[in-house]
Write a structure and sequence with these properties.
The chain is mostly helical. It has 9 helices and no strands.
Amino acid sequence: MDEIVERILRHPLFRENMQKCFELEKERTFCHHDMVHALNVARICYILVLEERLPYRRELVYSAALLHDIGRTAQYTTGESHHAAGARLAGIILKDCGAADEDILLIQQIIKEHCSHISAAEAEKWKTNKPKNLLEAFDLADFWSRSCGDCAVRDECYWEVKSDALVR
Ligand SMILES: [Fe+2]
């Protein structure tokens, strides 16, 4: 496995936040932000990177995916936005893990700007457009990682567009 990814998985701050998030979401009826979700995003995003021949290393994609929702625990407990908290925590974890400064900045940008659900206008756009950079591939992967077709609470969900409308 890629070395930085392995270090992230062992990092105490990563493990502590993932565990807390798991506990806090036990009663949540909507989508969870657990390791299964993080790995689904990593795999789908890397498929898109390969399909579109985008110039991003697997290690970078997996590092971003593992960390993209790491701020959820802070959001649940302090009200801080998970984008801001996630970028801050990811910065600490990635630096400890020996990631390159340019990778840290790109991953922090992805965490700050990612949006797991998309608007009807964006859904229309993605019927024909292809992702051109990691942020676009990431947003699609985050969205496509959800299986709205199997969801018991899809009618109560605030997502304007359900993920099954776009799955290829
Ligand atoms: Fe996500």
